[in-house]
Specification:
The chain is mainly alpha-helical. The protein has two domains: 57 residues, Multidrug-efflux Transporter Regulator, Chain: A, Domain 2 (Orthogonal Bundle), CATH 1.10.1660; 35 residues, no CATH class. Helix content is 48%, strand content 8%. The chain has a three-stranded antiparallel β-sheet with strand order 1-3-2. A hairpin with a 5-residue loop joins strand 2 and strand 3. The termini are far apart.
């Protein structure tokens, strides 16, 4: 019978994957011990090296990347069109001419 060796990640791998610092990962671990925030707990080796199961980290990434109920972000094109519409309304309906880049009223 062969023992299956599971792939593991070291602290520097975790820091690179999540793009955070080592102290941030340590805070996550401390919080995970206190209130079970879902961050995977590492395996401690006799040499005090922290190793994470790669599958647990991948599962955590997938669960954390689920879209939350965030407001829809307006596309730049849509925002520009809305801005141009507002400028046109100011000019046509109110007789106010505005400089496009500065937003300052043009005095005539």
């Amino acid at each position: 019978m062969q023992n299956k060796i599971e792939p593991v990640l070291r602290m520097d791998d975790i820091v690179e994957i999540f793009r955070v610092s080592v102290p941030t990962v340590r805070r996550w671990l401390q919080k995970a011990r206190q209130d079970k925030n879902g961050f995977p707990m590492p395996i401690r080796t006799p040499g005090r090296v922290l190793l994470w199961n790669k599958d647990e980290i991948e599962t955590f990434l997938i669960t954390q990347s689920q879209p939350a109920n965030l407001p829809e972000i307006e596309s730049p094109d849509k925002r520009l069109k809305r801005h141009k519409d507002a400028m046109r309304i100011l000019e046509v309906e109110h007789g106010v001419k505005v400089k496009p880049r500065t937003g300052k009223e043009v005095v005539q």
